[in-house]
Amino acid sequence: MKYGVVVYKNTDxxxxxxxxxxxxxxxxxxxxxxxxxxxxxxxxxxSETVKAIMNGWYMYxxxxxxxxxxxxxxxxxxxxxxxxxxGIGDRFLDEIGGAYLRHYGPIGARDKTTMQMLxxxxxxxxxxxxxxxxxxxxxxxxxxxxxxxxxxDPQNEKxxxxxxxxxTFVSITHDxxxxxxxxxxxxxxxxxxxxxxxxxxxxxxxxxxxxxxxLPCLALKxxxxxxxxxxxxxxxxxxxxxxxxxxxxxxxxxxxxxFDLGNPPDNNNKYLEIRKKxxxxxxxxxxxxxxxxxxxxxxxxxxxWQKKLLEKTEYTLRNELSAQNDWIKTLxxxxxxxxxxxxxxxxxxxxxxxxxxxxxxxxxxxxKQNDNKDMRIxxxxxxxxxxxxGKDYVETQWRQTQHQRDEIQRKLNTLLxxxxxxxxxxxxxxxx
Length: 432
Known about the structure:
The protein is of the alpha/beta class. It has 12 helices and 13 strands.
């Protein structure tokens, strides 16, 4: 018997590979790697039957459906998204697409939302839970003091770190660099998964917004706390009873009251029953060497049905293109308006630039005048110094003259006191 593992080859999220790795753990070998987005074009050697556990997220290219008949599938832990590249939604579950799943039913739905979608298409199903709950221990457990923050938004990271300043925090992301990651072999990708899971296993505890971090942590018995946004509630709510959790807006409240990072609480054990049932189901499927009678539909029927899926998509795309054309016309009109506004602004800018040039000329003139005034002030200051010096000289000369006059007067007075001299003066006819 040959075995295949389903992967999303072009993923940008290692969580997709964690789900594939969970399936791989049940396989005795990986003989084929099956691209989730090319299930209808997969080819095995000589069309040999390939057993595969078909868990995971389905899918972006919903017209690549149903899978080829050489895949003997176990449809379990399946999540169906309403979103895809071509707006097909759940229509891929109609007619041949739905008949395919009915043939292999009952289908194990990963969550309640998927189960309700399958039930609405009259496809036998049950809620199986996620296969990552079956992950085994990775190597030897060597506990660390790391508190891992896995894709926690910056705002809540700050809140958590502020509340627990003494913890050893490490931030991790499930995002991968697509160019380098896609160049790796599947074994290299699974090695990275194992390294990541081992780090989760050995952490003191984990805080995360990623479902496929939280559920593996349950399986690995690492205390975990899930922060989720309401927009993802439909695919997460089925698992909330298994977890410590809060929504995005209430981290500040619950991270202390419900999940103390200093002494993180154990996870509850509700997941163990799901783990047991999933493990048993997968082990029995792999152990059973018989294969299910494949779903039969001719290539012509399948291609016509796929074309029908795409016809409605084409109609939707045409409407979208029409809307886009209207939008482009609006943009064209807006472009003309903005062109006129731009020209007016350019003219205004030119006037302002001319005015700035005039201001620069005026500024240069005023600076020159200011320099001239500084020179005149310096000249006047020097002249004032000279005048002050001259004044000091004149005052000195005047004081000397006064002194000389006073000295002459004193001498004259002394002479006049002499009677002989007084008589001579009178004799000369002078008045004393």
